[in-house]
Amino acid sequence: MNQNFKNCLARGQITKDPAAKDFADKEIEAAEHDLIRAKKSWDDRDFKWATIQAYYVGFHGVRALLYSRGYRERSHYCLIQAIYALFVDEGLLEKTLLKHLEKIKALREKADYDLEFSPDGAEKSIQVAQKLLAKAKSLL
Known about the structure:
140 residues; mainly alpha; Four Helix Bundle (Hemerythrin (Met), subunit A); two-stranded antiparallel sheet
């Protein structure tokens, strides 16, 4: 178990909750909905929203994975750290895919808080989101 995950557990930002397993499918549904919306935003040339929505596709996808292991999160950062520990370190998820999620998280924050976004960033975000969602579905 990696130290970042241990720290998140110790701070209560990741908690054990066996009932969380019941919500994994709902998270996949949310991710699929957000993917449809992100693609529509892309088609409408609304690159800010496409970027934001694409990140949430990945967020809900990995959240479903976390829930499937009986955990809940209270932090986007700790969610990612938990996925490193529970899926990347176990050889179930490619490290590069999670690194890409971290990159689109940063793009989402730039779009949301700094109003900095681009067609290229939106496109890359959607591509990563699609890969993450497909992988999450295959692991569940």
